[in-house]
């Protein structure tokens, strides 16, 4: 039975990514909803495959996807099966075009402000890179460093991501296509890794490399597949360094990879548990329906100004599971867009909620067509969508879009952005 359910889900998801493949083959960057369909596969299908062969993370907190009662598994099956199609349906309401024709065309930095651009980017990136390096040279465990950095920077921790945001903007510029530009891009990759290493998130080590792999040249499934394999192996090897639970572990490489997939790239068990803690309509554990989204909208507003903004969905969810007060729960389980909808508005509204997500994706397609500097953050946000809640996606890629928009206005030559030359493939 498990094998049949998984085969149906996998078949549906493979068909759903065909527009992604078609656009990449035609020399276009796929739409945001096409990237979101990749996100569904990434955060559900690999883990489901492991569950089918009997491999789970044996967590005491979560109900495995295939181990719930019949009604729970049926609900999980319907949502996961339909998720990428609901994104596509919503996107079609707001954007009828398929693929962004500007995919392999670069923007041009204005000659008048180009020196200022490089001065700003180099100075800020070097500052945060050396700051991160100095912290690492103290030779303390990453989990200890992460706590200290969080206390030191607070909400300003978003500044540590600036080199990544600079890279996301620069990768779409004509300058980055030169040999010197490639060297500069790799400098930004190193600066990004050093700057964010103390935050203690392994994905921060891979994100700048992903930007280069996906968006500097032609997108292809082969490149994505190769990067994914290397990325899973890399984050698995980093597990004992970044997680205190594995510091003295003697786990084999296979065990580390399995735990990485089930722990970092799988939301099936989280989905089943979120369904258990959801109502058919409304919210069971949130203070009020949509409370998690109110928090996300007010994310950048200091709590002194908006004391009513509450807590994130993942923090509230984690608090309910581990039975600790929300304000004392300083960590959170990974919750994606689907689980966030379930916990905030219930099963009935989850499906139209995913369509609304798709509608926003269509609007982002139009926006990034007119402002190509937003192309990378919108597509990366879609990849992260099913693995992380809205506030986390906003923290990373909303800020990246904000930096890209400011830099676009300050440094991009406007009179040629609509007629850019095509790069050789």
From TrEMBL:
Transmembrane segments: 34-53, 74-95, 115-137, 149-170, 182-200, 221-242, 341-360, 391-412
Keywords: Membrane, Transmembrane, Transmembrane helix
Protein name: Oligosaccharide repeat unit polymerase
Organism the protein comes from: Brunnivagina elsteri CCALA 953
């Amino acid at each position: 039975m498990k094998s049949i359910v998984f085969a149906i889900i996998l078949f549906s998801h493979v068909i759903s990514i065909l527009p992604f493949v078609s656009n990449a083959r035609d020399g276009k960057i796929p739409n945001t909803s096409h990237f979101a369909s990749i996100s569904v596969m990434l955060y559900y299908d690999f883990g489901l495959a492991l569950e089918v062969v009997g491999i789970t993370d044996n967590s005491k907190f979560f109900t495995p996807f295939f181990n719930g009662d019949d009604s729970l598994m049926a609900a999980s099956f319907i949502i996961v099966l339909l998720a990428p199609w609901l994104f596509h349906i919503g996107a079609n309401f707001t954007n009828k075009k398929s693929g962004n024709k500007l995919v392999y065309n670069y923007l041009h930095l204005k000659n008048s402000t180009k020196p200022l651009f490089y001065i700003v980017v180099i100075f800020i990136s070097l500052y945060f890179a050396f700051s991160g390096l100095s912290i690492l040279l103290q030779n303390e465990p990453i989990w200890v460093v992460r706590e200290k950095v969080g206390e030191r920077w607070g909400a300003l921790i978003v500044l540590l991501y600036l080199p990544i945001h600079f890279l996301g903007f620069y990768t779409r510029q004509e300058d980055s296509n030169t040999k010197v530009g490639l060297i500069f891009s790799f400098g930004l990759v190193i600066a990004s890794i050093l700057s964010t290493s103390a935050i203690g998130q392994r994905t921060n080590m891979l994100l700048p490399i992903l930007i280069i792999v996906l968006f500097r040249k032609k997108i292809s499934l082969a490149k994505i597949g190769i990067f994914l394999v290397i990325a899973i192996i890399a984050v698995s090897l980093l597990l004992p360094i970044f997680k205190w639970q594995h510091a003295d572990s003697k786990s084999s490489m296979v065990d580390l990879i399995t735990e990485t997939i089930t722990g970092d790239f799988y939301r099936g068990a989280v989905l089943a548990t979120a369904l258990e803690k959801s109502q058919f309509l409304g919210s069971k554990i949130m203070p009020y329906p949509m409370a998690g989204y109110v928090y996300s909208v007010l994310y950048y507003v200091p709590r002194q100004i908006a004391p009513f903004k509450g807590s994130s969905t993942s923090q509230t969810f984690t608090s309910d599971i581990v039975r600790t007060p929300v304000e004392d729960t300083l960590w959170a389980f990974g919750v994606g867009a689907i689980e966030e909808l379930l916990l905030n508005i219930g099963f009935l509204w989850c499906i139209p909620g995913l369509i609304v997500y798709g509608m926003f994706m269509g609007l982002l397609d139009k926006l990034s067509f007119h402002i190509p500097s937003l192309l990378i953050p919108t597509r990366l946000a879609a990849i992260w969508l099913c693995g992380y809640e809205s506030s986390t996606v906003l923290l990373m890629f909303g800020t990246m879009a904000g930096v890209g928009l400011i830099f676009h206005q300050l440094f991009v030559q406007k009179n040629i952005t609509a007629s850019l030359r095509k790069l050789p493939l």
